[in-house]
Amino acid sequence: NTTPVTVAVTGAAGQIGYSLLFRIAHGDLLGPERPVRLRLLEIPQALPALEGTVMELQDCAFPLLADVEIDSDARTVFDGAQLALLVGARPRAKGMERSDLLEANGAIFTEQGRALNDVAHDDVRVVVTGNPANTNALIAQRNAPDIPESRFSALTRLDHNRAAAMLAAETKTSVAKVKNLSVWGNHSATQYPDLDHAMVAGRPALDLVSRKWVTDTFIPTVSQRGAAVLQARGASSAASAASATLDHARDLMLGNRHGDWTSMAVVSDGSYGVPAGLVSSFPVTTSGGDWSVVQGLEISEFSRSRIDASVAELESERDAVQQLGLI
Ligand code: NAX
């Protein structure tokens, strides 16, 4: 199939956008045969900078890039979108309370949810990277009543990838040999990267690393990795976040690695005791634009308490946006 796919990206002039757009246009999202049309959304003040990025995209002469359009109107950009990558969000400014952050992003994601509802392709898939990703996805989904809820997901793949890389390093193997990792809950400090079912080169990960390493080193390092990158780079994770966004969207559209699963925040159907309707991360398998939660995993007492803590945070975010009238 060589019909171009229409991919919308928001926050396209931001740091993640600068890495993401070139990789999409290169074919890293839908494969080396499939042309893409890029539709890029930015706030009006960022459109001049985005024009510069568009010049660079043209100058790469990517054979798969059918065309690029930019605009600051969500209804124009999302018109006919088959895949919408919602990266743009309002960062937390100094002195901003959490409720201010939820409200500022609420304004963005209610509007974008409605626009997607009205003008996106019937078969659209929506992936939210912009933080707070889970709750932004919940807001967009609830404001798009005509789009099936399963079409919305939020990114925990960066956490999943960080966990895989760290486990591979600790066990002195390659990430290609690490399987069946799970990230549960919120993309925040409460996330739970779970090694209970993980395998390394065909052996249970927990036969190779100590429980103490898991609780005292692995979990805190994975959940604080974003802060560590920010501290070192003086800017938040960008290329790795773009790469994880691609991994997420590519697996969703083309299927995850055979014999493995991945992690994605999706609208809960009540699996593993996560209240239905919350956008929470689960281990999932994917194919053809659809996902399903991996069922039947045994949840240890430790895992239960970590999952419950992260889910409680998601419930409080949901309650806050409900009170603000955003959902
Ligand atoms: P930047 O601040 O560099 O870029 C964000 C861009 O979004 C800006 O160009 C801004 O003008 C644009 N924007 C703001 N409001 C918009 C709107 N209403 N419509 C369209 N565009 C709008 O941030 P960047 O480093 O690119 O990060 C983007 C988002 O990803 C942030 O919310 C960030 O917190 C989040 N992240 C999420 C991660 C995840 O794993 N889920 C990891 C990386 C990243 O921190």
From TrEMBL:
Keywords carried by this UniProt record: NAD, Oxidoreductase, Tricarboxylic acid cycle
InterPro entries membership: L-lactate/malate_DH, Lactate/malate_DH_C, Lactate/malate_DH_N, Lactate_DH/Glyco_Ohase_4_C, Malate_DH_AS, Malate_DH_type2, NAD(P)-bd_dom_sf
Catalytic activity: (S)-malate + NAD(+) = oxaloacetate + NADH + H(+)
PROSITE patterns for this protein: MDH
GO MF, any single term: L-malate dehydrogenase (NAD+) activity
Lactate/malate dehydrogenase N-terminal domain residues: 6-149
Superkingdom of this protein's organism: Bacteria
Domain Lactate/malate dehydrogenase C-terminal positions: 156-321
Binding site for NAD(+): G11, A12, A13, G14, Q15, I16, G17, N105, Q112, T129, G130, N131
Residues annotated as catalytic: H187
Residues the record lists as binding substrate: R92, R98, N131, R162
EC number: 1.1.1.37
Keyword Oxidoreductase set for record: yes
Example of a GO biological process term: tricarboxylic acid cycle
Described function: Catalyzes the reversible oxidation of malate to oxaloacetate.
Family: Belongs to the LDH/MDH superfamily. MDH type 2 family.
Name of the protein this chain belongs to: Malate dehydrogenase
Gene this chain is encoded by: mdh
